[in-house]
Fold SRPBCC domain-containing protein.
Amino acid sequence: MNTNLPLDFTVDKEAKKVYIKREFDAELSLVWDAFTKAEILDQWVAPKPFTARTKVMDFKVGGRRFYAMVSPEGHEKWAIQKFTAINPKTHFATYNTFADKDENAEMPGSEWDYKFSGLGERTVVSITIYNESRERMERMVEMGFAEGFKMSIDNLDKVLAGLQQKG
């Protein structure tokens, strides 16, 4: 499995958007599952040394994922993803916000649009993130979002390799 594939990561502060594009050396159905099933998401989405723990996931339009990023010391940072559109194996969209442990959302949030396309035995994932406020986006970037996302993608490559060996 080739894990040394390029990652395009572009921040457009004027448009309040982040564009991410990455090719994965895995078939579309496996990559789709990695982005849409809690038990797989929890294995890769948190940049090390954090872990992810999903409390609720209802993958349907109008459903949500409520999960925490957990530090090695046990500190939790909660987030909500509300699923706003789903077209199986090609596209889904979410509205994301941080939250407290009781699922009270912190505003403003961001809209994430995920597109998947198969390239033979590889899959391309394109993500567009629109932030409701420029301040939120700038804070996200300053907090190391790009570096954290790249670490998550490295985790995903390892999870996909493991899933391919099992499959």
Observations:
- The mean pLDDT is 94.
- The beta strands are 7-12, 17-24, 51-57, 64-70, 76-87, 91-99, 105-119, 122-131.
